[in-house]
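Quick one: HK97 gp10 family phage protein from Paenirhodobacter hankyongi, structure tokens please.
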Amino acid sequence: MAEFDLNAQAARLAKRLEAIPVAILAAVRPALVQSAEDLAQVARSLAPEDSGDLKASIAVTPPGAETPAYAEGGGRRIAADNQALVTAGNPEQRHGHLVEFGTKPHENGGLFAGTQHPGTEAQPFLLPAARLTQDRAKRRIGRAVGKAVREAAQAGGND
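--- reply ---
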């Protein structure tokens, strides 16, 4: 099975989109955001239910906006002009990565220092959601790009 590499795909898309005029990129943004919203909805449906706080922390960041604190690598990130980001986490819910990937058995620190934690089983929700929505997102974005290019070509021909 092929490995899903979101960063490599984003880099390839960014390189291809650099050649497209800003107006066309702006026309594609709604498709990017809608695809991210679809992914977020599926991720919420797959996230474990416990208290619902993790589900509620799943957020979409549109192009040019900043992700919530603690949503990505413990900090914030600005979405590029050709990105809509889906993140899990906020200042109160900083454990999405532990749920997604699980934890290994380890010795506790802090209040329970010296005790043994058995680890937790992974409960993936974000990566499966990305895989489930990937094809539809590609089609939606491809249609938006095609339409924007056709409209730009027609507008250019009318000058």
